[in-house]
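stage 2 :: seqdesign
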């Protein structure tokens, strides 16, 4: 699953890899395996160590800003920028985050709080926790480019969707853990067909069931 067994062991010890259940991801796809990034965020020392590894492949002299999408990747951007700055002879690498628009028409990621001026004209490393379809990472990369930044790479904790550069705007991907998983749409999900209960404690199972109930109610 991963070329680095030590990293996989760290994920497992933290309770970040859970199997044998029926999960619904943020992307809407279903699987029997879940990577619980929130279990990692509980442990600052572990996250710090992982972010140091996330920044290792990059030359700090070539990076001005680290960007992550809200919410979890805000933490990753902070720690990764911190460790990159420690390797830089002088100067500081900044950490900012992209937010999702709440407008019903425009839900693109954007840079508020004055962060846009730190993106424009600068070299940016984008960080993300989990890649399933690459949607959030791609939208963050698009936002950086839209605001005039130059994306030099995408560094992630775990690539569980076998996502390639072509799915995130042609940006090279560095993943600490490669964990290709079998996932399904709701329509093709074998667990749904077999009546396996949806996990409502992790992932988006609760929202999925609520949506299904609303659809069923409309049919009555």
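stage 2 :: out
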């Amino acid at each position: 699953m991963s070329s680095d067994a030590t990293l996989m062991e760290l994920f497992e010890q933290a309770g970040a890899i859970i199997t044998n259940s029926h999960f619904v991801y943020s992307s809407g796809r279903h699987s029997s395996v879940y990577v619980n990034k929130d279990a990692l965020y509980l442990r600052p020392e572990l996250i710090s160590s992982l972010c140091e590894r996330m920044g290792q492949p990059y030359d700090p002299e070539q990076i001005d800003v680290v960007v992550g999408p809200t919410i979890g990747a805000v933490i990753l951007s902070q720690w990764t920028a911190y460790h990159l700055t420690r390797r830089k002879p002088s100067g500081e690498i900044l950490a900012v985050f992209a937010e999702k628009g709440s407008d019903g028409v425009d839900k693109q990621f954007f840079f508020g709080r004055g962060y846009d001026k730190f993106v424009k004209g600068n070299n940016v490393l984008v960080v993300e926790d989990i890649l399933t379809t690459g949607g959030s990472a791609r939208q963050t990369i698009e936002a950086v480019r839209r605001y005039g930044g130059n994306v030099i790479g995408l560094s992630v904790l775990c690539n569980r969707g076998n996502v390639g550069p072509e799915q995130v705007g042609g940006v090279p991907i560095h993943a600490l853990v490669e964990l290709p998983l079998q996932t399904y749409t709701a329509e093709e999900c074998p667990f749904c067909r077999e009546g396996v209960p949806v996990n409502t404690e992790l992932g988006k199972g609760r929202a999925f069931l609520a949506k299904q109930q609303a659809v069923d109610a409309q049919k009555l």
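stage 3 :: structure notes
- The helical segments are 5-13, 37-41, 44-55, 72-87, 116-119, 135-146, 190-193, 205-219.
- The domain at 5-219 is CATH 3.40.50.2020 (Rossmann fold).
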